[in-house]
Write a structure and sequence with these properties.
Chain lengths: ~375, ~250
């Protein structure tokens, strides 16, 4: 059976992506869904659930309300909750059912904002796209609503935005700490981090950044928006390892000077017999880091089926079909990927690299931090 | 941009009015898109000399995939009007309203407006606002004004009343508002009085009065609008006057 995952897991959906993206901004995120349980979005896919509060809700859509078009009940619930909780904003997103019947969440958001005065918007989802799609749309909608133009403070150091950081790709706070240290060690300053260890203040001051570090496919719409609207260029790549991190430091200065976007991985990739499975930007960055630090040639097998496919080389592959992927993996000697890929890798040497968006919290504790430090797990 | 959704009872002449209005706007030098939002997919026939465009839903059913370019699901007709039809599911199956929403999402993904850069977009919608899909053309960002086509027949006025009420219900949502009535005459008894009374009681303006005309039928038999057939006819002038009114209003709103 094609397009079916019999053995391996599947990636988190766009609705989980929206919840993850908006978790720390003080807004009220509401998934219009039949379920009364929000654990899929906010516990299985959300490591912050246990130590950080966030207003994540499910509407509790019933069959009768869907068939009768009782949108007014949803609007009324939103208004009551908003008046009580006073969120900084209200974000609505659709699960498959309202997406199928075409519920106009933009119009409901408009009604709620008119009634409460609280900025409200609908993030485009249908519960069937990838987490990358949901995060991208959520970050873009948030930025369009909250970026301020007059937040620039003069400083001698280059101001860097980190874009595309959510626990679905970077599940531990240590990753943020390492990135911040990386930026400071480079003599630069963290202007804003979008997604983790963040607040609405970070979104407001995004336009004061001089360059962005795009560390996953999930921030690409925001990165493009900042470039198009505010002429802030971005460097694409995660500073993994030692050599590649040094290259990225140079690229950040170069991009800021020349006002041009740079794919940091572009010149540091060679075809090999090692396969890295997962999200495109993270995998390509790891491949570049392995080449520069250990002389290992690795191919990327992008397995989300979404994201920044432009970063892929001709010898890489985008594949979200289990059977095709299983056959493709036979060509490789070593496979690096989330532990839940192991069952389709047969007798190949397998190196575990947990990915929250694929296996949830099952293996988070084993996820290594290789940002701006030596790669030791390989 | 002129963004109009045309509603009215089934068989009342919505497609005739819409395609003649498109042709009139094109005749006056405007770049026009007409999107038929009826599963029958016959809205644009008279702009295409009887050579119909492949409807979007038919494309998806026949090829089992979404179209990848506008060229696959559009045709250029009289006056360079870009003609698109949503079409519908297999009769008796599926969900026609969802089909309209799917089509609009697809047209957005294909950057229809950015690529074609129209001066006017006209949506020709199924007879009544029976579900969310048929209200989709009046959502924010699509049509900004609704034209209701009616004659003096009881059921046509009944449908017009339903449409007006449905649009009124959406006023909190920043949807389109009703601009007025196109009076499409059927020459029934006391027709003018009935339509004027309806318009007056609902605070609606009659923005065009289209006489019953054999010329419309004659040119439709040739796969044409009267604008294409003979723009000098009295009935053609009525459509041209409506087009001029909408152009003038659009320019005043800029």
């Amino acid at each position: 059976m094609n397009q079916t995952a019999r053995i391996i897991s599947i990636y988190a959906a766009d609705t989980s992506g929206v919840c993850s993206a908006l978790y720390e901004y003080g807004g009220m995120t509401v998934i219009h869904d039949a379920s009364g349980c929000n654990s899929t979005y906010t516990t299985h896919d959300e490591p912050r659930w246990y130590d950080k509060k966030s207003m994540m809700f499910i509407s509790g859509l019933t069959e009768k309300d869907a068939v009768m078009g009782n949108d007014d009940k949803f609007s009324a619930d939103l208004i009551i909750a908003a008046k009580e909780l006073k969120p900084a904003f209200i974000a609505l997103c659709a699960s498959p059912l309202p997406a199928m019947i075409g519920t106009d969440l933009d119009a409901i958001a408009y009604e709620v904002e008119s009634e409460t005065g609280i900025p409200s918007f609908a993030v485009k989802t249908n519960g069937m796209n990838s987490y990358i799609y949901g995060i991208n749309n959520a970050f873009l909608d948030l930025a369009k609503r909250f970026i301020k133009n007059d937040m620039s403070e003069k400083t001698d150091r280059l101001k860097v935005n980190i874009l595309g950081m959510t626990p679905l790709d970077f599940p531990k706070k240590e990753y943020f700490d390492s990135l911040k240290t990386f930026i400071e060690d480079a003599g630069m300053e963290l202007n804003a981090c979008i997604g983790m260890e963040t607040s609405l203040k970070d979104v407001e001051r995004l336009a004061a950044g001089e360059v962005s570090l795009l560390i996953s496919s999930s921030g690409i719409l925001l990165a493009d928006h900042l470039f198009d609207e505010y002429e802030i260029p971005y460097v694409k790549g995660v500073p993994y390892g030692i050599g590649f991190s040094e290259k990225i430091k140079g690229f950040l200065s170069e991009a800021a000077t020349n006002k041009k976007n740079i794919d940091a991985t572009e010149r540091f990739r060679c075809e090999g017999k090692v396969a890295i499975l997962g999200e495109a930007v993270l995998c390509a960055s790891l491949a570049s880091a392995l080449l520069l630090d250990k002389g290992i040639n690795a191919n990327v097998l992008e397995t989300v089926g979404d994201g920044d496919l432009e970063i892929l080389k001709p010898f890489d592959m985008s594949c979200d079909d289990e059977k095709i992927l299983e056959d493709e993996l036979k060509k490789y000697d070593i496979i690096i990927g989330d532990p839940l890929f192991r069952p389709i890798c047969h007798d190949k040497k397998f190196i575990e690299l947990p990915h929250e968006a694929f296996s949830g919290r099952c293996f988070t504790k084993n996820a290594p931090d290789i940002i701006n430090r030596a790669i030791e797990f390989i | 941009m002129i963004k109009i959704a045309v509603y009215g009872k089934g068989g009342i002449g919505k497609s005739t009015v819409t395609s003649n209005l498109s042709a009139a706007l094109a005749h006056l030098g405007k770049r026009v898109i007409q999107i038929g939002c009826d599963p029958k997919a016959d809205s644009t026939a008279n702009l295409l000399s009887g050579n119909p465009v492949l409807p979007v839903m038919n494309y998806m059913r026949d090829f089992d995939k979404e179209p990848e370019s506008l060229e696959e699901i559009s045709k250029v007709g009289y006056g360079n009007v870009l003609c698109i039809e949503t079409g519908g599911p297999t009769p008796g199956l599926g969900c026609a309203g969802r089909g309209i929403i799917t089509t609009f999402s697809l047209l957005e993904e294909l950057d229809l407006f950015e690529k074609f850069k129209p001066d006017a977009v006209l949506y020709d919608v199924l007879g009544d606002v029976v579900c969310g899909g048929f209200a989709a053309p009046i959502r924010e960002g699509l049509a900004s004004k609704v034209i209701i086509v009616t004659s003096g027949e009881k059921m046509a006025l009944y449908a017009a009343n339903n449409i007006n009420s449905a649009v009124e219900n959406f006023k909190e949502r920043s949807y389109a508002t009703v601009r007025g009535i196109v009076f499409n005459r059927r020459n029934v008894l006391n027709e003018e009085e009935k339509v004027k009374e309806f318009a007056s009681s609902h605070n609606l303006e009659i923005i065009a009065d289209i006489p019953r005309s054999d010329d419309i039928i004659r040119f439709e038999d040739e796969g044409k609008t009267v604008i294409e057939g003979d723009p000098g006819l009295d009935v053609s002038k009525r459509f041209l006057d409506l087009a001029k009114l909408l152009i003038e209003e659009d320019e005043n709103e800029k």
